[in-house]
Amino acid sequence: MTAKADGTNTNGIREESKPLSFQERCIMTVVPMESKGESSVLHIERLTKTFDSKTVLDTITFDVCKGEVFGLLGPNGAGKTTLIRTILDIFRPDTGTISFFGRTFSDDIKNAIGYLPEEGSLDKETGVAECIRYFAELKDVRDIDKKMDTWLQVLALSEYRNKKIQELSKGMHRRLQFILAVIHEPPLLILDEPFSGLDPLNTKTLKDILLELSAKGTTVIMSTHQMDEVERMCDRILMLNAGKVVLYGRLDEIRQQFGLSVEVQYEGRLPHLDNILGINDSGNSAELIVAKETDTQALLKTLAAHVSIRKFEIKQRSMNEIFLEVCRK
Amino acid sequence: MTAKSLVVAKFEFVKTVRRRGFILGTLGLPLLMLFVIGLSVYTGAGIAMGAANQTVGYVDGAGFVQTSPGYVPYPDIESGKTALVKGEIHSLLLVPHDYLATGSLTVYTMDRSLMGSTGSSQAVQEFMAKNLLWHENVSEGTVQKIVSPSTPAVIVLDESGNPKGSQEIAGFILPFAMTMVLALGILTSSGYLMQGIGEEKESRRGEFLLSYCSAEELLSGKILGYAAVSLLQMGVWIAIALVAVAVSPLAVLFSGLQLTGLVFVAVVYFVLGYFLFSVSIACAASLAPSVREAQQVSAIFSMFAVFPLVFLQFLLADPNSLAMQFLTYFPYTAPFIGMVRLTLVSVPPYEIILSMAILVISIVVLTRLAGRIFRMGMLTYGKRAGLADVLRFIRMK
Fold first, then answer.
1. Is this structure's pTM higher than 0.80?
2. Chain B residue whose CA is closest to A116
């Protein structure tokens, strides 16, 4: 039986006897959504974008499904902003295709997307209501006043309806930007660092709203560096590094592919361990990264035979660790 | 022009006309100008009246001066000075004994103001001119014609030698005035456009807006919005000017005025010129990293608007020179130089048609490129985009 690059044999069955390499763990997560039978809201196929001679996005392929919260991750300069701008039709791809709900980009599609950028402030001289009305009119929204009142109430900005934007605090300004992104009830919402500038209370409010929108069928693409939020909210993620897809798939599956973290507190000298993906030893405590298939009971026995164990805790690896590991490679 | 462009235009228009600066500029400037003109007219009239009512003493050393109302003779310079110091006379004219040979005069006065002495000098010159003519036995009627000549009636002829009516003279004034209005309109609207785009770029609002509408829609909406702002401002200024003209003696020139072909050409130049400058200024503003730098770039375009004034001397000397013909074809100077030439001489129609065709082609080409330059310019933060960047933006998808 011959093994393929994604770690499966010629019959498509994964050979689980040996741990996967880093590349194998990344590649195997690139699973086309069609195979999952879920309806694709956004489909990107072999998208490439270059600026001068620099390839910023390199043959990117992925799907985003209806109602899911999709995390867009990557270190600074990975190509996330360019990808978002290309999705929003601010940039046009050099090669590859982008389709929304099975169609290519059009004005209707533009109106079906809500966008919250990471940076940028609104015109401070403009009134709150006037600003919402302007952006709502650009998205051809009807019943603007009714929707405006509802959202102002939900985000606790009702009393600022007739105030100028310059009177808003940073957090209020961010909430107003969020209203502008959702006032037209878009089926696809793209958020760039949505929680930046928000206090924990407002972060929770916004998170609850996003999860509620997601539950009602709104698709949310969220670009963030806050890995704890990714773990709590995202169904699937795409991670870019230097313009290439380095991780793509369901969050739980990715975390599994990256093995387990075993925290050990001990006295003595750790023995040489086979089948360990990584070790961070600080003398009397160590974090061992092991493959998910690893027999942890056998590992405990091996360790107990050499050192005195005070703590042995098995955890799934955090997204933060995975992020760092992928970025370092 | 799409619905989104109109939404952008409406927003920019309302936002700008509500600004205190706009209201002050629109209503305050013409009122200030009317005040200054009124003040200078009033002051000038006061000086003229004052000069007419002043009593002048004179000492006739030459022995030929005849007295006139307002002129008091004194036997010697000392008595004249005493009367001047006492305030009995406003100034003292000394006509020396050799005046007829030398022509030199001296005026003593207590008034230190330049205007006052100028008024006195003019009155004294007129007085001495009369006396010289009387001395030469010229008739009183001729003396009056020489001293106060009547203003000549000017009759302008057309190409076939027939006199033009006063309405057509006004028809000349209108296009010239429209050229000035175009220059003023470009200067004011470019300021608003620069400010608006510069602020949006500085606050990184451009990317947000581009997720709502395309760069072309945003650009055309802004140009339309600020054009409306500029037209409103021009409209108010023109309305105030018309009221001022209507209540002045100039009203006769414009009564029953019919719009000639020249006025039509002026309107076409105005529209084409406005769009060319607006698109150019919008692109330049999107490439500048800050509002301040955007304003500096706008000064380049403002310079074109004042070209007729810079080249006025050459323009008046030879309106059909090769240089002026070139400036009529060059898109950024065509609306101004073309219009001014038309008011001065007969310009071959093909030159005007060619000039307008070049303007239209320039606008079409620039508008196509402007979308890309504007889109990329708005997304380039913190650095000044150079010519190489502009070429890159144009090539970019």
1. no
2. B208
